[in-house]
């Protein structure tokens, strides 16, 4: 084991590396240890978790990762996050710095770009765990995340059933996608498409929006202009984009979209509240807390010489009016509901 480092020492070293590589920017990363360095004289593993960005989903992931550190005195967990989901150079620098820092024992990475991350990890000499989004590498210990295609397939089936309940047996749908080529986003797209087509429906088009709500809003505006008579369903690969689409529909005043089935993906509080008030019909909740916890757990297992499954499914749940109270109660019990 490595000697445990004080939290400020570790964060300072990493920040110095990032400043050298990308011109600085303190907002590009956040640091935390599971127990705030209170056992600095003991032995501990230092695990760095690099997420894509901070949003409702990744806040849960971060909470789970930190919880593992808090529960285990022999583990320090530090969190790093780029300033946005497309701050590719920032994340590349974070990964390079963490992999090259001898004070870090294992690195957990939620890659913004799977191909470039795989290249960076190719020379890794420490355990690496893929988080949330997978990448291909012989140096990767495992992937911890949602079975995204299956989760989207199940959510898409629920959307099709909701459409049928409205008398729309062969629903027309638009999919608001994220970053083209991102493995997570493409898996969700496949799941949605398969579900709609299996129900006898048609995906009219796919709109890529780089997971940016303003682009999702613009995409929804374009859809309404192109299909003024309405579409039966709009499925988004992330909650923020689903909420942006819902607002555009409401503001448009187009009554042909009044009963459009809207589906989000993540399980963020804002989206769950939107299901409560009817702004969204369905949300696919990732178990982000479990994802972060299990990813750090897997890294520590490898550090201790144990073996892990190549894919650890952190789970998902389709949320609608029938089970929303149960989901909210679970989030409150974990301190993840404000």
Short structural summary:
The protein is an alpha/beta fold and 338 residues long.
Structure description:
The chain has helices at 7-22, 56-71, 88-100, 114-121, 148-165, 183-198, 213-226, 239-252, 269-277, 288-303, 324-333; strands spanning 45-50, 75-80, 106-109, 128-131, 140-145, 172-177, 202-208, 233-236, 261-266, 282-286, 311-313, 316-319. It has 338 residues and is of the alpha/beta class. The strands form two sheets. The protein has a six-stranded parallel sheet, with helices on both faces. It is elongated.
Blueprint (SSEs and pairs):
Elements lengths: L6 H16 L22 E6 L5 H16 L3 E6 L7 H13 L5 E4 L4 H8 L6 E4 L8 E6 L2 H18 L6 E6 L5 H16 L3 E7 L4 H14 L6 E4 L2 H14 L8 E6 L2 H9 L4 E5 L1 H16 L7 E3 L2 E4 L4 H10 L5
Parallel strand pairs: 1-2, 1-3, 3-4, 4-5, 5-11, 6-7, 6-8, 8-9, 9-10
Antiparallel strand pairs: 10-12
CATH superfamily of the largest domain: Response regulator
Backbone CA Rg: 21 Å
The total beta strand count reads 12
Q: Please name the CATH topology of the largest domain.
A: Rossmann fold
Low-confidence stretches: 1-41
Structural class: alpha/beta
Molecular shape: elongated
CATH architecture of the largest domain: 3-Layer(aba) Sandwich
Q: Number of helix segments?
A: 11
Number of domains: 2
Main sheet overview: 6 strands, parallel
- Overall mean pLDDT: 89
**Fraction in beta strands:** 15-25%
Spatial gap, N to C terminus: 38 Å
SSE string, helices as H and strands as E? HEHEHEHEEHEHEHEHEHEHEEH
In the sheet with the most strands, the strands line up as: 2-1-3-4-5-11
Name of the level-1 CATH class of the largest domain: Alpha Beta
């Amino acid at each position: 084991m490595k000697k445990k480092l004080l939290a400020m020492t570790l964060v300072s070293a990493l920040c110095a590396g990032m400043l050298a590589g990308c011109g600085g920017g303190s907002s590009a990363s956040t640091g935390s240890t599971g127990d705030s360095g209170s056992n600095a004289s003991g032995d501990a593993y230092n695990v760095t978790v690099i997420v894509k960005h901070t949003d409702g989903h990744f806040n849960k992931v971060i909470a789970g990762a930190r919880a593992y550190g808090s529960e285990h005195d022999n583990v320090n967990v530090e969190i790093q996050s780029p300033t946005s989901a497309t701050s590719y150079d920032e994340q590349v620098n974070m990964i390079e710095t963490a992999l090259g820092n001898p004070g870090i024992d294992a690195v957990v990475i939620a890659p913004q770009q799977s191909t470039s991350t795989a290249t960076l990890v190719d020379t890794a000499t420490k355990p690496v765990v893929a988080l949330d989004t997978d990448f291909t590498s012989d140096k990767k210990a495992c992937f911890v995340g949602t079975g995204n295609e299956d989760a989207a397939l199940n959510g898409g089936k629920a959307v099709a059933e909701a459409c049928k309940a409205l008398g729309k047996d062969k629903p027309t749908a638009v999919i608001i996608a994220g970053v083209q080529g991102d493995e997570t986003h493409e898996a969700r797209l496949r799941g949605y498409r398969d579900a709609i087509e299996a129900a006898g429906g048609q995906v009219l088009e796919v709109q890529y929006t780089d997971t940016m709500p303003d682009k999702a809003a613009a995409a929804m505006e374009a859809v309404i202009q192109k299909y003024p008579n309405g579409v039966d369903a709009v499925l988004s690969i992330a909650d923020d984009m689903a909420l942006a689409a819902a607002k555009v529909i409401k503001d448009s005043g187009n009554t042909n979209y009044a009963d459009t089935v809207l589906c989000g993906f993540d399980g963020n509080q804002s989206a769950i509240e939107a299901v409560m008030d009817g702004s969204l019909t369905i949300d696919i909740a990732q178990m982000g807390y479990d994802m972060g916890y299990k990813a750090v757990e897997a890294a520590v297992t490898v550090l201790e010489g144990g073996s892990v499954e190549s894919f650890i499914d952190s789970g998902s749940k389709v949320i609608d009016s029938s089970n929303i109270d149960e989901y909210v109660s679970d989030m409150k019990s974990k301190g993840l509901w404000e």
